Amino acid sequence: MTHPREEVRARLQTDRPHSARVWNYLLGGKDNYPVDSEAGEVILKTFPEFAAVARLQRRFLARAVRFLAGEVGVRQFLDIGTGLPTADNTHELAQRIAPESRIVYVDNDPLVLVHARALLTSSTGGACAYVDADVRDPERILAEAATTLDLSRPVALTMLGIMGQISDAERPADLVSTLMSALPSGSYLALSDGTNTNEALNTAVGVYNGQSANTYHLRSPQEIASFFAGLDLVEPGVVSTAAWRPDADRAEEDTADVSVCGVAVKK
């Protein structure tokens, strides 16, 4: 019988870079292993703007959650592909506006879950929960999320940088559709992902895929926009990450437009 600690060590795969840990390195975090920082440096050597792209995506999360919790009054969030905790996590952003907000984080990296349980604590009156599951298993995610969220009331589903980890053969659009189909009218989808429109980024991701435990699949902006099928897009639609409702008092970094994002509502 495998000891639980040995099972976790095997899942960590510290001999190969993992996306959440590489992303953490690119955002300036310390929760990564040498193999992850080495992979991050290879990416930056090929595509030096990648760290700026990571920061832009994080800022999109902040603007999207402020919109969802503030302007449209969503009080429940299902964050799939959580990544390692950093500043302004989903529950902090939402509960800053509405302390009663309830958030379920989903990831399948054991290091993410360890840090999440230690660092992502809810405000009084709200709730945070953590689901150890893969986005490829939406039924399990929904079943476990239902112990914290009321799925008869609107939920904001956030999927930032996660669909690129799903190959075309795994039918990513169907995964999004299954998740959104289980949520009621008035629910929202906030999604962003990397595009295949920049040759340097394509090369960097190809190098990363050659050594990583999980590959990343860049797609065209049109393919990423198709994940919102059947939903009503919020203005300005599917646009570059920096162009989605930018903060008037904060200039975005000048970097290549290599990711797109959008927010849409289920009528």
Describe this structure in words.
There is one protein chain. By secondary structure, the chain is of the alpha/beta class. It is built from 10 helices and 8 strands. The chain has helices at residues 4-12, 19-26, 34-46, 50-71, 90-97, 110-119, 138-145, 172-181, 199-209, 221-225, and strands at residues 76-80, 102-107, 127-132, 156-160, 188-194, 232-233, 239-240, 259-265. Strands 1, 2, 3, 4, 5, 6, 7 and 8 form an 8-stranded mixed β-sheet that branches. Strand 1, helix 5 and strand 2 form a beta-alpha-beta unit. Helix 3 (34-46) packs antiparallel against helix 9. It is globular, with a radius of gyration of 18 Å. InterPro entries: SAM-dependent_MTases_sf, SAM_dep_MeTrfase_SAV2177_type. One of its GO terms (molecular function) is methyltransferase activity.
Give, in order, the helices and strands.
HHHHEHEHEHEHEHHEEE
Overall mean pLDDT score?
86
Query: Major sheet: size, sense and barrel closure?
Result: 8 strands, mixed
Rg, alpha carbons? 18 Å
| Beta-strand residue percentage | 5-15%
Proportion of helical residues: 25-40%
Number of strands: 8
Shape by Cα distribution: globular
User: How many H/I helices?
Assistant: 10
Protein name: SAM-dependent methyltransferase
Pfam families: Methyltransf_19 (PF04672)
InterPro entries: SAM-dependent_MTases_sf, SAM_dep_MeTrfase_SAV2177_type
Organism: Streptomyces incanus
